Amino acid sequence: MDDPERIRAYRRLLDPALDPRVRAEDPFAPMLYFSFWPQGAPEGMTEALQRLARSVHVRRELLQLLDVCETETRALPERLNGPLESSPLRSHARYSRDELAAALGLGTRTKGTPGSLVSGVRWFPEARVDLLLVTLRKSEAQFSPSTLYRDYAVDESLFHWESQSSTAAGSPTGLRYRTHEQRGSQVLLCVREATAGDIGTEPFTCLGTVRYREHQGEKPMRILWELDRPMPPELLAHARAVA
């Protein structure tokens, strides 16, 4: 975790004295909740987070972890563009799959739970956002031949991305990708180098909103996205190396 605002929010949510009504309305609450209960807890978000905050030993360990994250963070997160500016997500910060899905409303505004998100794409109709989750180095042991897409950075502001193998250019999904600006929807690109890192599942770096530039072919569509914020140099090196 490398977003100072999220670190402060999680500390606040872990305060056992916090008014449950305030906790329930915090935009970061679903992100913390679904990080621990990806499929949701039987008692619901508010009571589950209260239980978490009242667990002395767990709370102490989490606060210590947040302190370490705050000390080691090097990211320069910024608010996203357009309607997503009001979301708790920040460009160049790193998130788990569950945090990203929860921040966009899965499990609250959108039916389902973050734990049910297994593919690399998801349309959030209430938020009017297409979420693209990209793993740069794909292992044949973890990806089927039909999902070994060629995703890579062209430069710091252009990203080559392949849609799902069933997506035709004239399909509802293909049209949404191509005309998202005219339709008033957004596309959010999040990238990680590999599925697993040194300490477990690798988080995704939120590169922020992107805009459609052009595409070639279909099933899959080979789309060129233009980033609204240039890619961080370290991730850019990895993203260009897989081209």
UniProtKB/TrEMBL annotation:
<dbReference type="Pfam" id="PF11907">
    <property type="entry name" value="DUF3427"/>
</dbReference>
<feature type="domain" description="DUF3427">
    <location>
        <begin position="91"/>
        <end position="236"/>
    </location>
</feature>
<protein>
    <recommendedName>
        <fullName>DUF3427 domain-containing protein</fullName>
    </recommendedName>
</protein>
<dbReference type="InterPro" id="IPR021835">
    <property type="entry name" value="DUF3427"/>
</dbReference>
